[in-house]
Amino acid sequence: MKNELGANTDETVASVNEMSANINSTTEQVRGLSNSVEKSAASVNTIEENIKNMTVHIKRQAEILTSTASGINEFINSVKSISELTARKKESTQMLVETASDGGQKLSDSTKIIFQIER
Q1: Burial class for 106, CB neighbours closer than 10 Å (0-12, 13-18, 19+)
Q2: Is the sign of the CA dihedral 23, 26, 28, 34 positive or negative?
Q3: Is the pTM of this model over 0.70?
Q4: What is the pLDDT of residues 45-101, one digit of tens each?
Q5: pLDDT: is 11 or 85 the higher one?
């Protein structure tokens, strides 16, 4: 019985030692996992900050593009206005050339009549 009790005690001690080793191993694994989770959380925070910065830059670029588009529209409207003004000036110039041509023809006709009268 004494031997049996000693064997059981040895088995119990061996089991307790094995459990202790398993607990220590599990504790180390949990610590490693905790470190990994902390690193992952820090990475997520960094990614979040980068996304926020990117959002700010995207908004700035959108504002710049809006401003640029507005400037381009103003430029286009100015060119259109100049084109319309040029077309009106061209029409006025053509009318002036026709009037001058008619006046020149009438002056020439008048001069011929005057020469005929003088003869």
Answers
A1: exposed
A2: negative
A3: no
A4: 999 999 999 999 999 999 999 999 999 999 999 999 999 999 999 999 999 999 999
A5: 85
- Strands annotated E in 25-118: none
Query: What is the per-residue burial (b if ≥16 Cβ within 10 Å, else e) of 50-87?
Result: eeeeeeeeeeeeeeeeeeeeeeeeeeeeeeeeeeeeee
**What local confidence, expressed as pLDDT, does residue 92 receive?**
95
Q: What is the largest CA-CA distance in the chain?
A: 171
Tell me the C-alpha distance between 1 and 3, whole Å.
5
Residue 10's pLDDT band, with cuts at 50, 70 and 90, is confident
Question: Can you tell me which residue has the tokens 């990117």?
Answer: 54
Report the alpha-carbon distance of residue 27 to residue 84 in Å, rounded.
Answer: 84
4's enclosing H/E stretch is helix 2-118
Alpha carbon distance 25, 19 (integer Å): 10
